[in-house]
Amino acid sequence: MGTPLFPSEPAPALPQDVLGPGTAFLAGFALPQEEALLSSLAAVAKQSPFRHMITPGGFRMSVAMTNCGPLGWITDRTGYRYTALDPETNQPWPEMPQPFRVLAVSAARQAGFPNFIPDACLINRYEPGARMSLHQDKDEHDFAQPIVSVSLGLPATFLFGGLARADKTVRVPLVHGDVVVWGSSARLRYHGIAPLREGEHPRLGRFRYNLTFRKAG
Ligand code: MD6
Ligand code: FE
């Protein structure tokens, strides 16, 4: 990145700069597959509907969730974990749709993780006001594997912190079609989503969806 010509000139606020080492910000990477992704999303949600899970502390999450792939992430009063069965349907989670898998593998490859094969896709659904408090993703076995995160629908502000909960966070705007890959030194950074602002997305209405692909097992 070049040095600004004048000290007063603000540094370009590119997300790739903000996110730092171990991450790749692929702006609009999912857009060419939009139609296939949206129809796949609808098919998954039909089979394993979105639901508001309960945290171990007894709180109902403002984000509604479902999963696809061999493993799905859940939370209930007994804790956080991955399961092979959807506890609502008592059936396996829906198969990971081909367009989902192809997108995740190609984004990971582009980001320098050529061996990534996801076995879990957690799908988060936000309505205006919904938020995700600061957390680490640490329920997976192998932290050498990255996470691929796809944003669809309403824009959101991603809060990206450090390796300690108290570290300061930067705010990163994420819009429809953006893909973020994070691994290596960024894999255990704290992160969250600021309360979603009101809005109407032309394809997805009053919702934001986030797909996170992991190698969980
Ligand atoms: C979200 N994302 O974007 C929440 N976690 O709605 C996450 O919690 C997340 O985007 C791990 C890796 C990538 C993510
Ligand atoms: Fe996360």
Which terms summarize this structure?
Jelly Rolls; 4-stranded antiparallel β-sheet; 3 helices; 14 strands; about 15% helix; globular; binds N-[(3-hydroxypyridin-2-yl)carbonyl]glycine
In short:
The chain has helices spanning about 15-20, 35-45, 100-110, and strands at about 25, 65-70, 70-75, 80-85, 85, 90, 120-125, 130-135, 145-155, 155-160, 170-175, 180, 190-195, 210-215.
Describe the protein's architecture and organization.
- The protein has 217 residues and is an alpha+beta fold.
- It has a single domain, classed as Jelly Rolls (Sandwich), CATH 2.60.120.
- The chain is built from three helices and 14 strands.
- It starts with 14 loop residues before the first helix and ends with a strand.
- Bound molecules: N-[(3-hydroxypyridin-2-yl)carbonyl]glycine and fe (iii) ion.
